[in-house]
Automatic annotation (TrEMBL):
Any Gene Ontology biological process: methylation
Domain of life: Bacteria
Keywords: Methyltransferase, Transferase
Organism: Neoroseomonas terrae
Keyword Transferase belongs to the record: yes
InterPro entries listed in its UniProt record: SAM-dependent_MTases_sf
SUPFAM superfamilies assigned: S-adenosyl-L-methionine-dependent methyltransferases (SSF53335)
Gene Ontology molecular function: methyltransferase activity
Name of the featured protein: Class I SAM-dependent methyltransferase
Pfam families documented for this protein: Methyltransf_24
Leader peptide range in chain numbering: none
Length: 227
C-alpha cells in the first residue's frame, strides 16, 4: 500500500496528520509503552509515521476495511514494525469499525479487565453519523483517563466533498437527505457527545477560527466533579 504515497494522484492524502504526530510525540514523553488507536488508515501515511514514532514501543491498533489492512500489513511488517494489531471489517453496507470496537469493548468487559485501553485515538473514518456516532461512544469508554481523542475532518460534509457531492455522485441523494448532505457529521457528533460532556476537555491544537480537526482530553479521575 505504501507505494501509493508517491503517486501524484494521492497528493492530498499522502501526508501524515501532523496533529496526530504531535499528540503521539507528547504522549511518548509521559508514557513509554502507550496504546494507540487509528480508525481509518487511508493509504497509510499517518500509520507509517506513527509506527516510526513508536519504534515498536507499546501497541498500535488499526481499524479499517480488510482489504486495506491486508495491503498495509506486509509493508509495516517489512519495515520491522511488530507492535501493530489489525482489526478488519468487510465492505458490506452496514459493517464497519464500530462493530469491531463494540466486540472489543464486550470482550474486555467479559474478561473482567479494566475497560479503558487507549492512550490516544485518531478517528479518521467514514465521517458519517451512522458509523462515527457509535464509534465515538465506544471509544469514549475505551479511552483511558488522561487520554486524547483526535477527530479528523471536523468541517467536512458530503456537500463539499469533491467525490461525494451530489453533482459528482448523484446517487448520494438516495442514501442521505439534503440536511444530512449539507451537515458536517463529525461536527454534529462532537456537539452531541463531546462538547457537553464534563469528563472531556477540548484541547487547543492551534486553530484560531476555522477548525479542520478537533481534539479532546479525557479528564483524570481526580479532575472529575463528584456525582
Amino acid at each position: 500500500m505504501l507505494e501509493k504515497l508517491s503517486d501524484p494522484a494521492n497528493v492530498h492524502i499522502a501526508k501524515p496528520c501532523e496533529h496526530a504526530l504531535t499528540l503521539v510525540a507528547a504522549l511518548l514523553e509521559q508514557e513509554q509503552q502507550p496504546v494507540v488507536c487509528e480508525v481509518g488508515v487511508g493509504i497509510g501515511a499517518t500509520s507509517v509515521a506513527i509506527c516510526r514514532l513508536l519504534e515498536n514501543r507499546g501497541t498500535y491498533h488499526l481499524f479499517d476495511y480488510a482489504n486495506r489492512l491486508d495491503d498495509l500489513k506486509p509493508d509495516l511488517d517489512g519495515l520491522g514494525f511488530t507492535n501493530v494489531v489489525y482489526h478488519c471489517n468487510s465492505r458490506r453496507k452496514l459493517d464497519s469499525y464500530s462493530w469491531s470496537l463494540a466486540q472489543m469493548l464486550l470482550a474486555r468487559r467479559a474478561a473482567g479487565e479494566s475497560v479503558p485501553l487507549f492512550d490516544f485515538v485518531f478517528l479518521d473514518g467514514a465521517h458519517a453519523f451512522h458509523h462515527d456516532a457509535p464509534a465515538t461512544l465506544l471509544l469514549k469508554e475505551l479511552l483511558k483517563p488522561g487520554g486524547v481523542i483526535l477527530f479528523d475532518d471536523y468541517d467536512w460534509s458530503f456537500a463539499i466533498s469533491p467525490t461525494m457531492k451530489p453533482s459528482v455522485f448523484p446517487t448520494i441523494v438516495e442514501v442521505y437527505n439534503d440536511e444530512q448532505i449539507a451537515t458536517p457529521h463529525v461536527r454534529l457528533i462532537c456537539d452531541l457527545f463531546m462538547d457537553h460532556d464534563p469528563d472531556y476537555q477540548k484541547m487547543d491544537i492551534g486553530y484560531r477560527s476555522h477548525e479542520h480537526r478537533r481534539a479532546y482530553r479525557k479528564r483524570g479521575l481526580s479532575e472529575r466533579s463528584p456525582e
